[in-house]
Structure formats: C-alpha cells, structure tokens
Amino acid sequence: MKATALLLLSLPFIASSCDDLENIDPIFDNDDDPNTTIVYDDIVVDEGADSGNPKIFISPNEVIVKYDPGVSQDSVRQDFPLLNYQKCDCGDTNIELWVFDPGIDELEIEGVVQRLSRRSGTRGERSFDIQLTPVGPFPQPGQDVLADTVGLVGPASSLSVNIAVIDTGLDFKRYLNTESPEKFLFPSGYYSYCYDTGTGWNFTADNNGDGIREGDPYFVDDNGHGTYVTKIITDELDKKGVEYQILPLKVFDANGRGSYWDVLCSLAYIKDINNFHTAIDIVNASFGGGLPREFFDESEAGETENIFAGMLEALNDQGTLVITSAGNKGEDNDTGIEGDFLSSFESPNIISVGGYEYDTINPSARPITLHHFSNYGSEGSVDIALAFNNYEIIYDTSDSLRKQRVTLHGTSYAAAALSGKAGTLIDSLGSLPIEDLKNRIFSLTEHAPQLNGKIVDGRALIREE
Q1: Packing angle between helix 411-429 and helix 225-239, nearest 10 degrees?
Q2: Of the listed 167, 272, 383, 427, which one is catalytic?
Q3: How far apart are CA 117 and CA 128, in angstroms?
Q4: 417-456 residue pLDDT tens
Q5: Which residues form the signal peptide (predicted)?
Q6: Given the residues 344, 352, 412, 419, the one annotated as active site
C-alpha cells in the first residue's frame, strides 16, 4: 500500500496556474511506510513568463581586450585612460577586463573599442551583463561551507563523464540529504592549480569591495537556477547508471546577474583543466540573450579573432562540447538586428537547444510543434528541440517526511536535459570527436515537419516516458 500525499503549497509559484497544479501528481517510492504522509512543497518556474524583459545590458565603462601572443601589454594600456584592469587568473593571460571612469562618454568608449580593433595584435569588445530569468523563492544556504569539506568531491577518474555547469553555482548540501551521498563533484584541484579549490569556483566574489572580482571557492547557489539545471542533468545520468562528475562554476550572483567577463574566465578555467588532461566532456551553458549581430561576425583577414569565438575554438580543439539554450522569447535568432549569445556563434562544438510543446495529457501526440516561447533559427542556428515544458525534479530535505518538487519550463532546462543525454552517449560509446558525438546525438531525433525552417532538419529529441 502506498503512502498518502498532501500537497502543501508553502512556497509561492512563479508564473503558475491551476493547470500547473493539475498536472503534478504525487510521487511515492514503493517501500514507503503506509502510515507515512509525504508532504510536497511545490514550485513552478516558467522562463517564458519573463520573455518580455531584456537579458543583456551593455556595460557603459568596461571593455574586454585580447592581445595576440608577443604583444607588449603594458605599452598598449599606456595609450588609454583606464582606471584599472583585471586578468583571468587562470587559463588565458592574454585577455583583460579594462575599467574606465563610470562617466565616460558613449562615443569615447566606442572609440576605445575601435582603436583596439584597428591596432595590430589587439582586439577590443564591449563587456556586458547577463540577466537570468527569476526562479522565485530559494532557501538561502550558508555561504561559509566549502564543498571540499563535506565528502562530495570524487577522485580523479578517466572513467567518469565530466560536465561543467556554468551558472549560479550549486546548493550541494541538498545532495547530503540522501541516505548515501555520492562523491559526484569534479576534483578540479587535481587538474589545475591556479585556483585554491578542490572543486568548482565562484567567479562573482568581490571579497575586498574594490570592484575587482577575484573569486573564491564558495560557489554555493543562492539563486536556484544552477541547482535546478544540475539536478536535471544528474537525474538523467543517474537514471542510466552513468558514472559522472559535475564541475560547478558560479558566474551569476544571487539576483541572477552575471557578466560576459566572468563567463570568459570560467571557460578559460575549463581550458586550463583540459590542458592537463582533456577532462571536461561537456559544458552546459543555460543562459543567453540578444546582442547586436556584428558581435558574432567572423574576424576579417589580419584582424585578431573574436574573443569568445576564440575561446570556443580552443575548447573545440580540446574535444569539449558546449550545449546552450536558444532562448525563451519566441523569436528568430537568425533575423533582425540582434543575434543570440551564445547560440548565434558558428562554432562546430556548439549545440543550441530549442523547445517543443510537450503534451502532458498525451505525450505521444503528434504533430510535434515549437513551443510558442521557444526561440528558433530560420537559417540554422538552433540545432535541436527538446521538450520545453514540465521538467520535474524532486529533492529530499532534512525532514524525511517532506520533499521539494519543482516543475520547470524553458530552454535552460531543455539544454540541461540534452547535456544529460549527451553524457549517457559518452558513457556508452567512449570519447568521440565532436562531429561524431553531435551526429550520434542527432541520430536519436525524430523528424518533425512542423519544425522545418525553425530547427535544423526539423530535429526533435522526444522525451522518454
């Protein structure tokens, strides 16, 4: 006999409706005590509900600079009136963040970018902030706990599938509520020595209050997005019995605000880890937003290459697949004055994920159609569609009679689901060249005619029931 269920709505919904409640059924284990009442705290997060708000904010006074090898960096800096600068501490010493007076004129800051790009051996790009969709109430974990100290860091292993999650960090303490916690965190300190950490890194930390984000090892999630994304990935891998390790890289703060600079530095860290041994198989990047289309243009002959494109190229050479979300505004990423960061980059190691409408009443229903909130690519920038809606994750809590159930809608979560699927393929097939791995992923899809002209080849990876 199964236990009785009580739905306790102790946490408010984000963009929820009565339909959301009707589609959430109680879940039990077969060995539940028949006299036990399981209490579920329900949360619904819908990225589409925030689709009208901007996601990218150009910095008025920050520029990212890339130097070609051998260029005198000091002499370049002396030609510009910057207040201070910062380097990525790990993985790429040829990239800097320049900070100018907050009152600098827009024409002047644009002039800095143009001068750098015309100069031999340098490139300048405007920095920008990225805003995640709010996920609603998320219990504030203690920020003074190191993941290294709680027994969740695994050993260095050539057998595990390793996935870096660039997001808001990870509330790893939730994994301690299980009866036998797994050592599932990637031991990055074994592969790279430039950050003082056993696993993961928080790129957002400004511990001196001077505006320089020097970072620290306290990557505990105080937002929720990264924890939810990671749980979708680990649920998929656990379901298939895959041995895996997760590298949490925190580039978004408690408010879901992050920066292009911190994203770059997190990728540089992955590159440094891979320089020791190609260890990171997949990068999950469930974020993005609109940027002027020229940001994605390929460099002309003789120019220093686009900074982000260069980072993607380096990871491609190392055999790391980058899976990113297409966005949730119902827009075409391939037309208009803006492209989508990251999915508009034409890099061979990117897979951009859109979302189809998942029928919760009849999952086998056809035709498969694009979800009205999912972005798409009429010229081929969105590679595949997974279910947009109704990703359900369940957490144990410190109270054995209480669980947290979260239902998630959005391409962030579709991308996470694909990262889990890709991980299962790597586990079963071994390491593959990027092109072969992508082809194996695409071979699992169904052709959905209604997705033609929006998703490459009308590809839909149908959710398993």
Answers
A1: 30
A2: 167
A3: 18
A4: 999 999 999 999 998 999 999 999 999 999 999 999 999 9
A5: 1-17
A6: 412
- Spatial neighbors of 56 by CB under 8 A, at least 6 apart, are 128, 129, 130, 131, 289, 290, 291, 341
SS (H, E, C) the chain: CCCEEEEECCCCCCCCCHHHHHCCCCCCCCCCCCCCEEEEEEEEEEHHHHCCCCCEEEEEEEEEEEECCCCCHHHHHCCCCCCEEEECCCCCCCEEEEECCCCCCHHHHHHHHHHHHHCCCEEEEEEEEEECCCCCCCCCCCCCCCHHHCCCECCCCCCCEEEEEEECCCCHHHHHHCCCCCCCECCHHHHCCCCCCCCCEECCCCCCCCCCCCCECCCCCCCCHHHHHHHHHHHHHHHCCCCEEEEEEECECCCCEEEHHHHHHHHHHHHHHHHHCCCCCEEEECCCEEEEHHHHCCCCCCCCCCHHHHHHHHHHHHCCEEEEECCCCCCECCCCCEEEECCCCCCCCEEEEEEECCCCCCCCCCCCCECCCCCECCCCCCCEEEECCCEEEEEECCCCCEEEEEEEECHHHHHHHHHHHHHHHHHHHCCCCHHHHHHHHHCCCEECHHHCCCCHHHEECCCCC
225 is catalytic: yes
160 is catalytic: no
pLDDT per residue over 23-78, tens digit each?
Answer: 344 444 444 566 678 899 899 999 998 877 889 999 999 999 999 999 999 999 99
Choosing from 225, 383, 409, 427, the catalytic residue is: 225
CA distances from 420 to 283, 406, 424, 465 (A): 11, 18, 6, 16
Dist. CA 324–CA 350, nearest whole Å? 7
Does the annotation mark 412 as catalytic? Answer: yes
Domains (ranges, CATH) in the chain? 56-131 (3.30.70.330), 133-390+409-460 (3.40.50.200)
- State how far the Cα of 422 lies from the Cα of 352, in Å rounded to an integer: 13
Q: Report the C-alpha gap between 26 and 180 in whole angstroms.
A: 24
